[in-house]
Specification:
Rossmann fold, alpha/beta, 8 helices
């Protein structure tokens, strides 16, 4: 379905980003990877995706807190793979603390990576999309872009901002072949969430399984994690012809979290 298209997925060397990259590659999209990690492991990942799906790949290690590197990332993806047709803004970090204890440098980093990077990638990718009159922008927000939790002020602020940015871009591109939408996952068992489970287990002196159940029980009525494959398939749907008039949506995939 996406053969001949190129997808740039930020933060795609692991977790949600990798799941989405694989789902898009399965539909024939060439993949521009971005993220941190061991160079040999990233090269092996690229080889695996090429062999499995028969697509082309490239990689750029842009630091998503730095606008100049973000512009280089988009230019690299376009120059190597022939344009950025699909942009998935997924890169993100987290820090948990009360507002009065929140380190200012962590606030700045979270806003830069989780929110401002989306603006910079979209700004760089839009001219090419407009020239081709086709594009799909998928911003990975969070259920925390729709509701708040204590101890996560920077993350919640950034993800609410992502949802707002999504709506504005959708309105600005409403008469074009470009769509912009947000996916808002609940708990997904990524390395970021596993760290929160491990921290909870250590603080509460309970087993990892008990910490997992406690984490899910507080917020996610389904009592089960969202999977990266589920998010990848939703991204594919938004990139399909069926998604052509889905514009400015904040699509929660959260096991019932937002419904409460």
């Amino acid at each position: 379905m996406l053969k001949g298209k190129t997808a740039l997925v930020t933060g795609s060397t692991s977790g949600i980003g990798l799941g989405i990259a694989r789902a898009l590659a399965q539909q024939g999209a060439n993949i521009a990877f971005n993220g941190f990690g061991d160079a040999a492991a990233i090269a092996k990942l690229q080889q695996e995706v090429v062999a499995t799906y028969g697509v082309r790949t490239t990689y750029h290690g842009a630091d998503m807190s730095k606008p100049a590197e973000i512009r280089e990332l988009v230019a690299h993806a376009a120059g190597t793979l022939g344009g950025v047709d699909i942009l998935v803004n997924n890169a993100g970090i987290q820090h948990v603390a009360a507002v009065e204890d929140f380190p200012e440098e962590r606030w700045d980093a979270i806003i830069a990576i989780n929110l401002s990077s989306n603006f910079h990638t979209i700004k760089a990718a839009l001219p090419g999309m407009k020239a081709r009159n086709w594009g799909r922008i998928v911003n990975i927000a969070s259920v925390h872009g729709l509701v708040a939790s204590a101890q996560k002020s920077a993350y919640v602020a950034a993800k609410h901002g992502v949802v707002g940015l999504t709506k504005s871009v959708a309105l600005e591109t409403a008469t074009t072949g470009i769509t912009c939408n947000a996916i808002c996952p609940g708990w997904v068992l990524t390395p970021l969430v596993q760290k929160q489970i491990d921290d909870r287990a250590a603080q509460q002196k309970v087993s990892g399984d008990d910490a997992r159940k406690s984490l899910l029980g507080e917020k996610q009525p389904s009592q089960d994690f969202v999977t990266t494959d589920q998010l990848g398939q939703l991204a594919v749907f938004l990139c399909s012809p069926a998604g052509a008039q889905i514009r400015g949506a904040a699509w929660n995939v959260d096991g019932g979290w937002y419904a409460q």
